[in-house]
Specification:
alpha/beta; Rossmann fold; 2 domains; 14 strands
């Protein structure tokens, strides 16, 4: 199979979607002959060396830098270059055309165009509902949601398969008329940290050796609920004098803004924004926390960090939005309404009852080891591509009856 893989993100960066893309490419290159997988991606990102993978990047323009997570004007500019670059790649390979396109997120519309122009079938790697993502971030565009949903529906119906990352997105794909829905969940990223790579987190933030640490790991986009977390922690700090909040992640203007917020509010004197850390050190940082926080307020896809949180065996406090509850239950995490008061009560409940926290953590780890490891991910993705290889071999982009595979 000659595969064109479209990933409209900086690659590689240590955050959600690029990590998932790298995992998928590792699995797919293991099952392919050399040079049979061609990745088109953004100009930014660290070099990657995956045997059997050819990479083409969009042109690097000086005003398109530091492309963050989520939709933005700069990202739309990159997507225009991405479209042009992809068309050039496909045209160059027109004499030995691609068998299949694997399209991540918004590149599904480019894949749809390729199908209309060249007849190449595509898989829609659905990490979020694009219609919801656009209108939630840019609320003045809410009037366009019906039109965007129609476009999303057409992209789903025209695909050979949809690969959502969670149950909610699978339900959306099914409602749009997906021919074949194959859930491919994210996985835990915890791995042993390199020796000497991480020192004492408590020393780093100037806390006592006995200090309690509430840890959040992730970006600082509004949908992540960091503002909710800060308001909740202000209440926790007023009741527990030896508790600190550590926010790990974020960069640039967002990181500077939150550091300014924390430094200007006396209630947040023990809130620390330490910036980004390498993924390979995630396990060591989480191991030093007492409670892990997941304060997300918007979205319908489950954040990748949830799986690492579960795998760590540490107690977790999470908002009870659908993004979380499609994976989390009260037996493996403390779920709270997405308000500062409720979230603060949850943190206090876990910190105040060590046995309760221990039970949550142990149950969480058992769940993660059974469902959210690389071996499970590899098996699921190989199962999908075995199905696609069989389907494409005899009849090209033939259509089968709708199916959904969740196990």
């Amino acid at each position: 199979m000659k595969l064109l893989f479209l990933a409209p993100q900086p690659f590689f960066q240590e955050r959600g979607t690029p990590i998932a893309v790298r995992l998928a490419l590792q699995v797919l290159t293991e099952r392919s002959t050399p040079d049979q997988i061609h990745l088109v991606t953004y100009h930014e990102g660290s070099p990657v060396d995956i045997e059997g993978l050819e990479i083409t990047r969009i042109p690097a323009l000086p005003f398109l830098k530091n492309i963050g997570a989520g939709i933005s004007v700069k990202k739309l500019g990159c997507d225009l270059l991405f479209l042009i670059t992809t068309l050039k790649v496909v045209w160059r390979h027109r004499r030995t055309p691609y068998t299949l396109v694997h399209a991540v997120e918004e590149s599904v519309f480019i894949a749809l165009l390729l199908k209309l122009l060249f007849g190449i079938p595509y898989v829609y790697d659905m990490d979020s509902s694009l219609a919801m993502q656009v209108t939630e971030k840019w609320w003045p565009l809410k009037f366009l949601r019906p039109l965007l949903l129609k476009a999303e529906q057409y992209a789903v119906r025209s695909s050979i398969a949809v690969v959502p990352v969670c149950d909610t997105l699978a339900a959306i794909a099914d409602s749009h008329g997906s021919k074949h829905t194959h859930i491919l969940r994210d996985i835990s990223l915890l791995e042993p940290s390199p020796p000497g790579g991480v020192g004492s987190l408590r020393e780093e933030i100037g806390a006592s050796p006995t200090a309690e640490i509430v840890l959040y790991a992730g970006n600082l986009e509004r949908y992540q609920g960091v503002d909710l977390l800060l308001e909740a922690f202000a209440q926790v700090a007023a009741q527990r004098e030896n508790t600190h909040l550590v926010v790990m992640g974020g960069a640039g203007e967002a990181l500077a803004r939150y550091r300014k917020v924390a430094s200007s509010d006396p209630r947040l004197a023990r809130a620390h924004f330490i910036g980004q850390r390498p993924v390979q050190h995630l396990s060591a940082y989480i191991a030093q926390a007492d409670v892990l926080a997941a304060p997300r307020i918007l979205g319908n896809n489950t954040p990748m960090k949830i799986y690492s949180y579960l795998h760590s065996g540490k107690p977790m406090i999470a908002t009870d939005i659908e993004s979380h509850t499609q994976v989390l239950t009260p037996s493996i995490a403390h779920l709270a309404p997405s308000t500062p008061d409720a979230f603060a009560e949850g943190i206090l409940a876990v910190l105040g009852d060590k046995e309760y926290g221990k039970r949550l953590g142990e149950a969480a780890r058992t769940t993660a080891e059974a469902n959210y490891t690389y071996d499970v991910f590899r098996h699921r993705l190989n199962h999908l591509y075995d199905h696609l290889s069989h389907q494409l071999r005899p009849c090209g982009s033939c259509v089968q009856e709708p199916t959904r595979i969740t196990k």
